[in-house]
Amino acid sequence: MAEPILQVTGLVKHYPLTTGILFKKQVGAVKAVDGVDFHLDRGETLGIVGESGCGKSTVAKMLVNLERPTAGEIRYKGEDITRLSGKALKSVRRNIQMVFQDPYTSLNPRMTVGDIIGEAYDIHPEVAPKGDRRARVQQLLDVVGLNPEYINRYPHQFSGGQRQRIGIARGLALRPEIIVADEPVSALDVSVQAQVINLMARLQDEFDLSYIFIAHDLSIVRHISDRVGVMYLGRIVETGRDAEIYDHPTHPYTQALLSAVPVPDPEAREHRERIILAGDVPSPTNIPSGCRFRTRCWKARERCALEVPALAVPAEFRSVSGPAAHDSACHFAEEKQVVPPETDDGAGHGSGPG
Amino acid sequence: MLLEVRDLHVEFHTRDGVARAVNGVSYGVDAGETLAVLGESGSGKSVTAQTVMGILDVPPGRITSGEILFEGRDLLKLKEEERRKVRGAEMAMIFQDALSSLNPVLTVGDQLGEMFTVHRGMSRKDARAKAVELMDRVRIPAAKERVRQYPHQFSGGMRQRIMIAMAMALEPKLIIADEPTTALDVTVQAQVMDLLAELQRELHMGLILITHDLGVVADVADRIAVMYAGRIVETAPVHDIYKNPAHPYTRGLLESIPRLDQKGQELYAIKGLPPNLTRIPPGCAFHPRCPMAQDVCATDVPPLYDVTESDAERGSACHFWRECLHG
């Protein structure tokens, strides 16, 4: 298999907590991201799901170099981008672009759409010569389904869905290879979400893009992703192909997460088993010993407090080659179907190319 | 019927003209029943609720016509003094954003206790005891100690529990919950919805649940009212609407949910955008986005047709509801 376009190993981001004004002393750290590994292949979509505070947005920021990791590597085509600076960093940044969650605050209200999208060319003039920029921007507007004549309008003249299209056009301006999308549709209305998801899927084919798609909406992530990673408190606890995660989850957190998602089918509410987790997510300043999920886990035993479970195929599934044999960081991983099989014709999709 | 809203019209005067937020909404809730009001932003679902609750900002808002009957009394005809006695004691509201709905400089105990000192004339000490009892009831651990804490010291889920406790304090007959779990994570959302459903059962309250989440609706509602551009476009028992929608907008919403068997394919998307409320399209407000629209839709406003089948009472504001239902 070809080399992945992005390879992340041991990624860590700790924000120090200090006391004192003159003589700062570190008293602890917010462990926002605490050892994350994954890879992204060319042309593929990796979905990252998790609840607020699990570190998924911090991962996104590190990928586009808005945050410097405390430790770990991010290899883009084999080169560790966390150590780059100056010119080399600039050229890598061009190839990894971001689409933000909130289309209301991520566009400068005092700039026209043309300036917002075209600003990228000021920083990377090699992509588009000066006289060519306006035409390029108009072309991009057309690509994302906006009227090219809107180039002189301001963000407030657009609806939320249209603004997100502007954000996507800006992300595409430099012809990147990777787009990191952090909750790109969660601020949008249901009827508009589908439009933006379709647009992103179309652009992926058209421009041969690789996506990191971060979201908390599990059904949307499943729709767009080839592989999914589930994050909890700064770590990936389970990862695999989408059907492996959704139909054969083996980590208790994934199972609880999937079972908690309200299913838009009133018939299902009687015969659905819901796993309701106790309590809240622990503070990232004070991560539990051993398995970080153990404080809310119904399976937790002594071993969970002592040993950190590794993200690997659990021993009991290593010999079998089925959809349950995927990476899961749990000492007591077992298969459990939590989402009832949806439709008859959906069953064939369950096995997938696992 | 516990609450009956009849032909309510609300408008806002804005710089861009008159925004007609609610254009003839009628719905009802019985004791012990859960009505889900489903709609996107700008559909008028929250404005209707605020009007029922009597917390609409007037001006810029203006109630131009309609009735809100609560146990037979028209709330819109009550004096503000009487209205205040209804609010909190007879009906209460839970908001989306618990952090901004709670007072940051008062302890949660003071805020919960206020319900009893103001409405029931209790002493501060008794009110404090009641506050602890309420916090226990919504399963906040260590209620005795935490009653002295401030809202920022609680997590999002716990704050929403406090909001629920406050709404339940005087055991009202009706609760209006406006997107109560939208700001919460899914695992916490499940805890909070469970709690709400349990308390509703116990106290036999009517519940109006305002949401845009088709999943939450399917989980808890008895009946649904779907709103679009300030009108109810479809109303039906929850099972019927998911199985067989009678309005193209409802159908579009249901079809735009990603489904397993459609992976890799294009999602169904309702074309276009929700209308600007200062310029609602003539005829059926949905017609510019509707795949079934014909000439009549651009000129005639469809009434809420009675589309009752067998014994399930249903309504649809579509000229072509037959085609939608059976097509």
From TrEMBL, chain A:
GO biological process, one term: peptide transport
Any one GO molecular function term: ATP hydrolysis activity
Record carries keyword Transport: yes
Keywords for this protein: ATP-binding, Nucleotide-binding, Transport
Pfam families: ABC_tran, oligo_HPY
Gene3D superfamilies: P-loop containing nucleotide triphosphate hydrolases
Keyword Nucleotide-binding: yes
Family, similarity comment: Belongs to the ABC transporter superfamily.
Protein name: Peptide ABC transporter ATP-binding protein
Lineage of origin: Bacteria, Bacillati, Actinomycetota, Actinomycetes, Kitasatosporales
TrEMBL record, chain B:
PROSITE patterns found in the cross-reference section: ABC_TRANSPORTER_1, ABC_TRANSPORTER_2
GO MF, any single term: ATP hydrolysis activity
GO cellular component, one term: plasma membrane
Residue ranges of every copy of the ABC transporter domain listed in the record: 3-254
Keyword Cytoplasm: no
Keyword terms of this UniProt record: ATP-binding, Cell membrane, Membrane, Nucleotide-binding, Transport
Protein localization: Cell membrane
Matching InterPro entries: AAA+_ATPase, ABC_Ni/Peptide_Import, ABC_transporter-like_ATP-bd, ABC_transporter-like_CS, Oligopep_ABC_C, P-loop_NTPase
Gene3D superfamilies reported in the protein's UniProt record: P-loop containing nucleotide triphosphate hydrolases
Membrane topology value: Peripheral membrane protein
Lineage: superkingdom: Bacteria
GO BP of this protein: peptide transport
PANTHER family from the UniProt entry: DIPEPTIDE TRANSPORT ATP-BINDING PROTEIN DPPD (PTHR43297:SF2), OLIGOPEPTIDE TRANSPORT ATP-BINDING PROTEIN APPD (PTHR43297)
Similarity comment: family membership: Belongs to the ABC transporter superfamily.
Protein name listed in UniProt: ABC transporter ATP-binding protein
Organism field: Streptomyces parvulus
